Amino acid sequence: MKSSRSATAYSFFIAFTLALTACAAPEPSPPPTAEPAVPSVEVEYTLGTENTHNHWSRAIPPVLTVPSGAIVEIETKEATDGQLTLDSGVEVMANLDFDPIHPLTGPIYVETAEPGDVLAVTFHKIDVLGWGWAGVIPGFGFLADEFPDARLKTFSFEEGQTHVQFDDNISIPLRPFPGVIGVAPATEGELVTIPPRENGGNMDNRYLGVGTTVYLPVLVEGALLSIGDTHAAQGDGEVGGTGVEAPMRILLKIEVRKGGRVLAEPEYETDEYYAVTAFGETIDEAARKATRFMINYLEAERGLSRVDAYLLCSLAGDLKISEVVDMPHYLVSMHMPKGIFRVPPS
Questions:
Q1: Strand 213-217 to strand 267-269: parallel, antiparallel, or no bridges (unpaired)?
Q2: CATH code, domain carrying 97
Q3: What is the distance, to the nearest Å, from the Cα of residue 284 to the centroid of all Cα atoms in its chain?
Q4: Same domain for 158 and 240?
């Protein structure tokens, strides 16, 4: 009888303790916002869409000259350069002309920028301007052979809107970024904007939004920075061929970095991670290059031996397929979290 009372008391104690623990449990953390908070900055230069271009060339004259450290507000067009509007029907998508695709705002000549330098571009604010579209373009996309028919969705955006309504049941957070950002290549002649290259280009990397600093290798005097193909939302890979394509207003800071590590291809960072990018004609090639580039960073900036850097990539590196739609040109990125390090980079 005494044993039975002890068991009953013990059961009551456990139940009471669990109840107290549940009552004292902290509230769950709110989900992260689509855009991190960044310091407010004052606009020093503005650049509209009166003069755009859709090729890469060192011969394209700059439309704006700025010093290192300049704060610039630029506007971009949507990717078809006006072929599509909010009221367009699917027949326009079926007959899309690729010649004017990717109107880019720029080039911007940055004083003191020379080959071998790094151009740092920090995004402080990105606003979607009114509307956007997404769709399937016949003959274009990762599964183009399986989806031969055109599809078009258009979206209207109000100021301050945080999601795009895909349908009555699906809403997607807005996370605007430029699909194309790059500097002029050192090659002669003109290059199309479609694939990613060492100068940047059509990277379609959805992490290049507000709060991110992109590092571009300077290949010609003045760098000649251009930006366009802005996306309001997009998944990793952009498998269907488009994000939510939309015109935008971008507030950014441009800085020239001298005397540091020479970059083979663009890199970027946020407060949470450092990242590298790599293009290749296969995903395997791009992934191997991205791994090597992160090893280079860890060796040069974090002081690791090459083998330890390789091991850390395996333990903490995060490979991401950034872009597959420009077959046979793919982009892979690797993120390395900053929180694993006790001291900042050298």
A1: antiparallel
A2: 2.60.120.580
A3: 21
A4: yes
Whether 124 and 193 map to the same domain: the answer is yes
- Of 196, 135, 145, nearest to 166 (Cα)? 135
Reference 66, options 42, 46, 39; nearest CA is 46
Boundary residue ending a domain (210, 240, 262): 262
DSSP code for 129: -
DSSP label at residue 339: G
Residues 258, 275 share a domain: no
pLDDT in tens, 67-80: 999 999 999 999 99
Q: Give the SS3 label for residue 33.
A: coil
Give the pLDDT confidence score for residue 38 in this predicted structure.
58
254 and 338 assigned to the same domain: no
Query: Is 60 exceeded by the pLDDT of residue 212?
Result: yes
Please state the rounded mean pLDDT for residues 97-121.
97
Residue-wise pLDDT tens digits, 31-86? 344 455 556 789 999 999 998 999 999 999 999 999 999 999 999 999 999 999 99
Q: Letter for the amino acid at 7? A: A
> Which residue range is the domain that position 170 belongs to?
45-262
In angstroms, the Cα distances linking 10 to 4, 6, 17, 114, 237 are 10, 6, 11, 76, 56
- Nearest of 192, 10, 219 to residue 104 by alpha carbon: 192
**Do 63 and 108 touch, CB atoms closer than 8 A?**
yes
Regarding whether 276 and 230 lie in a shared domain, the answer is no
Burial (Cβ within 10 Å: 0-12, 13-18, ≥19) of residue 5? exposed
CA distance 110 to 104: 17
Domain shared by 250 and 341, yes or no: no
